[in-house]
Amino acid sequence: MTNPRRSGAIVGLLVAGIAAPVATVGALGGSGVATAVAIPAGIALLGYWYRAPQIWPEVDRRRARAAVLIGELLALFALVLGFFANWAISTDEQLCGNGAASTVALGIAAAVYAAAGVLLLRRATRLVWLWPLLVLGLWATSIVVRIALPGGHGFCES
User: Fold this and answer.
1) Is the pTM above the cut of 0.90?
2) How is residue 154 annotated by DSSP?
3) N or C: which end of the chain has fewer CB within 10 A?
4) Which residues have CB under 8 Å from 62's CB, separation 6+?
């Protein structure tokens, strides 16, 4: 039986784990909207680190928090790696079309990322190796959906 609170906490961690660093980079670039997202997302991420023993009660308190911290660091590495791979593939395959294809693709990829995370991250130890793979899967899903969608193709200026 799945615990809805645990599932919600895992989705929240996955979202905050990506939103906080991305928004922080945007905030450092001077975006007011990014600043408004970065602060609560960073606080939420810190809250999920603190509450890790309640999310994964079967794991020692320190190990649960360490899994969140290490998983976040590896997920950030995967986010950066995936970003550059996504850019290279998009440019090479001419996936820079106008319209809503990229937004729709990112929305579908985010939904797959969150759903897969809830199903797969039931154990804290999986955060360390599976969370980065989920982030790479998010980028891969985005590319596949953009290839499949009409309007996702177009010339890329690099």
Assistant:
1) no
2) B
3) N
4) none
Residue whose entry in the numeric block shows the structure tokens 């990229």 = 102
Token representation of residue 62: 């320190």
pLDDT in single tens digits along all 158 residues of the chain: 468 888 999 999 999 999 999 999 889 998 889 999 999 999 999 999 999 999 999 999 999 999 999 999 999 999 999 999 988 998 888 877 777 788 888 899 999 999 999 999 988 889 999 999 999 999 999 999 988 887 667 777 76
Rounded Cα gap, residues 102 and 42, in angstroms = 26
